[in-house]
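Question (not urgent): is this output format expected?
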Amino acid sequence: MLRAVLVVATILVSRPSAADVGALTSDSFPYAHGHGLDLDGGLAVAFPTALPTGLSRGIGGGITEGRCPWRWGARAAWVTATESTLDWTVTHSDLRLRASGSLQHDAGRGSFGLRLSAGGTLVHETRDRNQGMRAGLMGSDLETSTFALVPAAELEAVVSVHVVGSWLLVMSGGPSAALVGSDLHGSWIAELGVGWQP
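Got this back:
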């Protein structure tokens, strides 16, 4: 009984005043929509373009122009992954360069949309033979390195939220595909970063 009385008294004493409620409902972090130009950048994770295993990590970003609902722009990301077997240590680095178009809808502080990006991925693969130097190997028997440019595309869901002023939190992710030789490699990519609307 005493506990119930204490709980009710605590609730009555801690009820917010009308002024407090007004302060809470006002916009404590004002924001401003930009003039159609968005810049964003942040962390990126993806499956490697040509390596059949592993997780690539790196950075990505882009620029977007236009007004809702149609927008266009350019994107770039650099991600890398390293995997090992008994014989080799393989490092894959992907430089993803894309032109993009998106359909976007603004809702209050945020916006959500669907972005289609297409372009090329420059893949750099380095293979080092484990314990090769101890075996006296040299040159291509010890290490190989190669470059390849492959066509690729992504279809991503994009969500951005105005935090304060012209700054946004931007999240995106979705499936990705690349044509490596004659094989179509399916994967995915995701990015988490900050955006700015000048």
